[in-house]
Amino acid sequence: MAVALLPQAASAETLYQAMAKAYENNPDLNAARAGLRATDEGVALAKSGYRPTIAAEAVTTSTSTNGFVNNSASLGVSINQTLFDGFQTRNNVRAAEAQVFAGRENLRGTEIDILLATVQAYANVNRDNQIVSFRQQNISFLQEQFSAARARFDVGESTRTDVSLAEAQLAGARASLTAAIAQAKSSAAVYAQIVGTAPNRLQAVSLPRRLLPGSLEAAVAQGTTEHPAVLAALFGVDAAGYAVKSEEGAFLPGVRVSGSVSKADEGVDTAQIQARLTIPIYQGGAASASVRQAKERLGQQRILVDSARRSIEQSVVSSWTQMEASLATIEANRAQLSAANLALNGVVEERRVGQRTTLDVLNAQQTVLTAKEAISQSERNAVVASFSVLASTGKLTIDRLGLAVANYRPEEHYEATKDRWYGLRTVDGR
Length: 430
Fold this sequence. Notes:
By secondary structure, the chain is an alpha+beta fold. It has helices at residues 2-5, 15-25, 27-47, 88-154, 160-195, 216-226, 228-248, 286-352, 358-392, 398-401, 410-417; strands spanning 53-65, 68-84, 254-264, 269-278.
């Protein structure tokens, strides 16, 4: 009944199908891709420093002298071209390119986060639906015990207390089922938010053992060298280094050429070309402060690399130990369930011959239910922890998982826009 309350479809859905849907449809991931496309334009902006600026000018002038009005007009075109700016443009371009590469790694990190969130949502829905099913079965069992207790009471074989105990346990089980249904609906809503569709009779998930590193040490080594957060921080160091060089360029000479052609209404044509060499002597301390500021930011980025590595190492160790603990807990919970089932069957038989009470049966049934739910929780934890290990090592990608989905390639937009001289439309036509 509870499962029927959740959105269902005719065909079952695997975890990898859900991850493929999230990769294509998740709005947060699409927003991150749009942000990277905006970052790509930073290279075109930086390269504009290599190119000339051209402007047309129309001037009309009205002059009054002692009551005499003189009107004049002129048209002209001017061109300005920087020949040397202390290598600032070159370093700005390199810094922008490093920011693009860092943006790609950040996008890959966002993809990993969305795929891991899909795994968590998928595992939560599976766990919650199992718990709903277990609690439905528990109600059926308790309903039988309540009916049996009343029947024994009617023939004088039990007391009112036994009937009340069974009734109270049944009422509590119904309340627990209501809470489980609410939790299942909440998990289904989170799943729909991430994946884009409602969960469709989700299948059980097996651990991705063939994709996992062979040891904790190998996982840490992979994570601290290959995770997108670490690589993005390293590219951030490159960008900050080029920013320092660009600011230092303000102390070097600059060479600029300009030319103009104009025509006045009196028929006078004027053409002019001018070369200007600028040698900075003192800029009020602004240029020096900018260099110092850029160097501090470079130092900050280097520290962030160490911070990223430590964070990834902690995440890998935490995920790995959680995975191992969950796998061990599953085995213990299964042994508990097996023993609890045997105990329940024995208590029921002993109650029939008067050696046990209704309370003993109810307690034994509660132990069985607790063991079942503990197994569901442990299985969920093991699945999430194993995929968290992949995420922490930077390996939770569509290529690694073999998802049936087209890979988004950010370099295609970058190559299409980095050298554009003009145009208001984006690459996709907007």
